[in-house]
């Protein structure tokens, strides 16, 4: 009990929450990904954590929630409330610089700048998506998109024309 | 004091009752979201509207899932799976919003208490309680017809959700803002396939044209508002589907012409039967597959 009390007295819940990694991109923390929106302690000692889904159907939200609870409980925070926030909607622009470096080091080309969304009707894009991504293996800029979809909703599949290797590209959204 | 040793324990301990075997009770999509209904909005209307939008997404997601292990190439299987997953996510959010305002129909009596609202709505309503349109319910047909249907469904849904970003219901507006990002690439993906098939070989052109002929009559009941939509549109909450007709028509015409496909006559508006709970046998068959196991074992947990 003493150990727990000491831990609680010396640990910032935000620092604990910021160590939790994404279940599908374990090289990134939820903070790097921009999914962790806020960590705060209420007057009654409850730690409130706000997270936001990347995609509507992101199947990892439950695991993220559980991972955050697990980490904060283990650090001695007994009452933890993980809440979903839907607005503003997540954008890949929220991935930190650090997160982008970690993605590239992990073999995933980081996203460029997300498209600007105007309030009116969404224009149709019939040509190939204009994305560029350098090869995370050899660094060549000469890469081509194989598919706009990949193993998770947030990534596209590309191939490097220089080294011939396939790689994933985190989509701009 | 709860100190889980593993993430698995944390998942399992999130609900004392254990997890319903067919859903994800530890992951309620609106957990922590303020679901207060703004003044002047009828919660019953709002809930009914959420079912319309949610059921379209749920049923189309289920149809797309039927391509898994059957798509013409692995990349396309991944694409269709991802699009279905996005739609399933939109459905969960919308059905949860419907549940949060108490629109649960008979489902809440049939589902056990531990089953979250969105799962109760998905698994424990009969076909006549669904508010989806025939467009998303009919069989996939071949790959070309599936992609023509996806093009039409994504075009209509994108036009509606783009307007719903300004809905007076902040939850609906947030769901729509997220959905627009996803539907943008759903529609583009379908449109590019229709181009490739229509302007491809004689056989792919024939199949794409057959798909268009099969799907076009289903446009008839998409743009007629129900009373619920009319009331909510007047209140700044919903979109009158008639308002998106011209935009959708322009998009579809553009794609078909580029794809060298003949554009059929636009069908005359018809009553919105699906929105009122009238469905063909295809929906019942689809729901038998979707709901069968959950209804046989409604109390199963893990």
From TrEMBL, chain A:
Name of protein: Ring-1,2-phenylacetyl-CoA epoxidase subunit PaaD
Chain ranges of the MIP18 family-like domain: 18-74
Organism taxonomic ancestry: Bacteria, Bacillati, Actinomycetota, Actinomycetes, Geodermatophilales
Organism of this sequence: Geodermatophilus africanus
NCBIfam families: PA_CoA_Oxy4
InterPro entries: Fe-S_Maturation_MIP18, FSCA_dom_sf, MIP18-like, PaaD-like, Zn_ribbon_PaaD
Domain of life: Bacteria
Domain PaaD zinc beta ribbon intervals: 126-171
Automatic annotation (TrEMBL), chain B:
BP GO annotations: phenylacetate catabolic process
GO terms for cellular component: cytosol
SUPFAM superfamilies: Ferritin-like
Domain of life: Bacteria
InterPro entries xref list: Aromatic_CoA_ox/epox, Ferritin-like, Ferritin-like_SF, PaaA_PaaC, PaaC
Name assigned to this protein: Ring-1,2-phenylacetyl-CoA epoxidase subunit PaaC
Gene source species: Geodermatophilus africanus
């Amino acid at each position: 009990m003493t150990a727990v009390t000491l831990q609680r007295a010396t640990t910032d819940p935000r620092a604990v929450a910021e160590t939790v990694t994404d279940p599908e991109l374990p090289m990134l923390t939820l903070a790097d990904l921009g999914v962790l929106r806020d960590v705060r302690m209420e007057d009654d000692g409850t730690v409130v954590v706000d997270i936001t889904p990347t995609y509507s159907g992101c199947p990892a939200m439950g695991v993220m929630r559980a991972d955050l609870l697990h980490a904060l409980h283990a650090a001695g925070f007994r009452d933890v409330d993980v809440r979903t926030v839907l607005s503003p909607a997540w954008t890949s622009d929220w991935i930190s610089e650090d997160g982008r470096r970690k993605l590239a080091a992990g073999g995933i080309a980081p996203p460029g700048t997300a498209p600007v969304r105007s309030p009116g009707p969404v224009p149709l894009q019939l040509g190939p998506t204009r994305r560029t991504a350098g090869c995370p293996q050899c660094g060549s800029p000469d890469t081509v998109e194989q598919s706009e979809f990949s193993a998770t909703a947030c990534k596209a599949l590309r191939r490097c024309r220089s080294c011939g290797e396939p790689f994933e590209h985190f989509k701009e959204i | 004091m709860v100190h889980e040793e593993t993430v698995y324990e944390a998942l399992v301990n999130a609900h004392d009752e254990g997890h319903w075997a067919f859903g994800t009770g530890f992951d309620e999509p609106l957990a922590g979201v303020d679901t207060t209904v703004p003044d002047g909005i009828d919660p019953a209307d709002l809930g009914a509207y959420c079912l319309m939008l949610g059921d379209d997404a749920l049923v189309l997601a289920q149809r797309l899932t039927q391509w898994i292990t059957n798509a013409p190439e692995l990349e396309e299987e991944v694409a269709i799976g991802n699009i279905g997953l996005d739609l399933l996510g939109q459905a969960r959010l919308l059905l949860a919003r419907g549940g949060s305002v108490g629109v649960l129909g008979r489902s809440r009596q049939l589902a056990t208490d531990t089953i979250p609202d969105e799962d109760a709505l998905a698994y424990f309503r009969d076909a006549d309680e669904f508010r989806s349109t025939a467009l998303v319910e009919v069989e996939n047909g071949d790959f070309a017809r599936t992609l023509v249907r996806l093009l039409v469904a994504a075009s209509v849904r994108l036009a509606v959700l783009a307007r719903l970003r300004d809905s007076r219901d902040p939850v609906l507006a947030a769901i729509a803002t997220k959905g627009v990002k996803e539907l943008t690439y759903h529609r583009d993906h379908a449109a590019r396939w229709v181009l490739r098939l229509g302007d491809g070989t004689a056989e792919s052109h024939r199949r794409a044209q057959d798909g268009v002929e099969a799907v076009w009559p289903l446009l008839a009941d998409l743009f007629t508002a129900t009373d619920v939509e009319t009331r909510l549109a007047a209140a700044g909450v919903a979109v009158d589907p008639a308002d998106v007709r011209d935009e959708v028509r322009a998009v579809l015409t553009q794609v078909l012409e580029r794809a060298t496909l003949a554009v059929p006559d636009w069908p005359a508006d018809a009553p919105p039967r699906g929105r009122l709970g009238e469905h063909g046998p295809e929906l019942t068959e689809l729901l038998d597959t979707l709901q069968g196991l959950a209804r046989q074992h409604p109390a199963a947990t893990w």
